[in-house]
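Hi R.,

Here's the input for the zinc ion complex you asked about:
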Amino acid sequence: MQTSVIGFPRIGTLRELKFASEKYFRKEIDTDELFQVAKTLRETHWNTQKNAGIDYISSNDFSYYDMVLDTAVLFNIIPKRYQELHLSELDTYFAMSRGYQGEAGDVKALAMKKWFNTNYHYIVPEIENDTEIRLAGTKVFDEYKEAKALGIETKPVVIGAYTMLKLCRYTGEKSSDDYASSIISAYQDFVKKCEEYQISWIQFDEPSLVRDMEKADIELFKKIYHDILSSTNQSKVLLQTYFGDVRDIYTELVEMPFAGIGLDFIEGKETNHLIEQYGFPQDKLLFAGLVNGKNIWKNHYKKTLSTLTVLQEKGIQTVLSTSCSLLHVPYTLKHEKKLTPEYLAHFAFAEEKLTELQELKSLFESSDYSLEEAYQKNEKIFATDRNCDNADVKNRLALITEKDTTRLPKRTDRQALQKKELALPEFPTTTIGSFPQTKDVKANRLAYRKGEISQADYIAFNQKKIADCIALQEEIGLDVLVHGEYERNDMVEYFGESLGGFLFTEKAWVQSYGTRCVKPPIIWGDVSREKPITVDWSVYAQSLTDKVVKGMLTGPVTILNWSFPREDITIKESISQIALAIRDEVLDLEKNGIKMIQIDEAALREKLPLRKSDWHTEYLDFAIPAFRLTHSGVKPETQIHTHMCYSEFTDIIPAIDNMDADVITFEASRSDLQILDSLREHHFETEVGPGVYDIHSPRVPSVDEIVAAVNIMLTKIDREKLWINPDCGLKTRGVSETTASLKNMVEAAKQIRENA
Ligand code: GLN
Ligand code: ZN
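And here is the predicted structure with zinc ion in place:
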């Protein structure tokens, strides 16, 4: 048996790529230096996999920003407005990913979307009417050669043609059908080029196959690969899927002349069943995704080995693989010095997953694996009680009824009361919560964490920051203020640290988008709140101003979705436990005079099942009530806000309205404003603040630009329901661009009030 890795984390064990890229953006290093860092990382990553005995190692899983954008560039899918900047290849690429404001021009970044059901975000390529799709890039071949020079034969990976057609945005009159033939011939040229390099395996990633597929989709897929495969002679094609099962196309897929097919046995609920029912051809390799690429718990060898045995008994040639790219897990446990060995024994990050692949391979080949030490060690981990139950939490949850998830009186009645109570102007202006996390803010937290400063000093520093932030917001003229979130490293980690049941890592970073990484906590046990978390900060901020200060919390669904979840209880159970904890915090804020409370659900959509048929039963039916549980206990006058990133919820608008918040702010500025039509169609009741500018980019929006955006919004949204705000928190931005942008935003609101 052989082993395969779909993709490896590229940011570096200590986020080397992030830091080098950011230096490059700040013009502190040049292209060559950035290239050198990248090259060293690739070399390390390939060697690490080689030394772990991995048989199928990917290349081109490295990226300077995003692998979808890389594939777009490979096929010349570069909108004109970026080409017209006449920048270098690399800078054009970064202009697409981050926007560009400088001598060469002023363009926004391409839209960003969540990558399937992960917390990774990809850049949405745009195909224009006259985009000429053709093989244009060389990165994939360059990296293949680079590995080859190190003596490592890799399988270059690119996003497959079907998934690309599905993910691109078509900005002209044409649709994906019109581009099928040009994309096919571009991929044919790609395959031909691979053959020239004598590449033995090519990996096409086709995660779109795990979504619902219509008949036409299946036909399109068949046509694409019929044509692509007919131009291959030497290079073998691995059709790689992940994040679910391929039930709609399984029977067709196994008949097609792929040399290998990669299936997900972790998230693919039907995968075993499909193989059982329809078989798997003996002349192909099955890349069995049995080592979880998304979660950090150790693989249970007994289970995996028994699946492998079943496959072997069926005569299937199996390659043991990860279930998806290891991009979604942290790099290594080696840097975790604070967690005790008892905890660490349960986890496997990317490097340790390589070891698992290797151990599983040798166990499977041994005559009786149950006698082997690696097996027995693994069994012992799963046999010991983890000591993670909290009876109080379980008892409290058992008593929750529908009444506890229903807020009264009904929203329209509350909204009238709140208008009176809060006395805000028309089109109230606000922000999403965080203000720039400048170096001093991070240094203060770090010093406190390391015990270098006292708690009193730590608090005093943050209070000074809060006071400055309140003063700044008053000066800018915002209507609803925030305290700035200086005490928070990350909106989930912060709450996790204050709740019982979570574990924390020191260096377990996972790429979220571009150079941004998150360090998700691990849900180890039952979750409980021991004492108030945010109350002091909010109360202090409110004491400094007559304007309303929003309390700022993270919602239960997001806390779960941005943590590594337990595998021994359901996510429903974990979300409900967290909801109870946040409910206590909401009520404490209210008791202490906070009149407006925002409960962020940035990641609500993230775990929405990829198949529509599962949306309600497997997710929304418990996630939405859990959110309501957090706020249903407040007084009618208390205004509950929520915030969601990415307006990709057109298809779940009733569910969002069902969260029963009074106001929702969301990201609309980077994607088109289609969402507004849907809100109207569904008689959306919640007041809305569709972000008026993009905070993911450093560019400063002009007043006119914001006025124009709001005027479009006003054609779709009732004026008494519209809020004006940026599209997300400001913590990643610099101070000067933030102040300038917010001033323009407030000025725009003023003009609109005067003219609307
Ligand atoms: N309140 C958070 C902030 O402003 C929300 C962040 C987010 O939506 N990702 O940073
Ligand atoms: Zn956001």
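One thing worth noting: DSSP finds 28 helices and 24 strands in the chain.

Cheers,
M.
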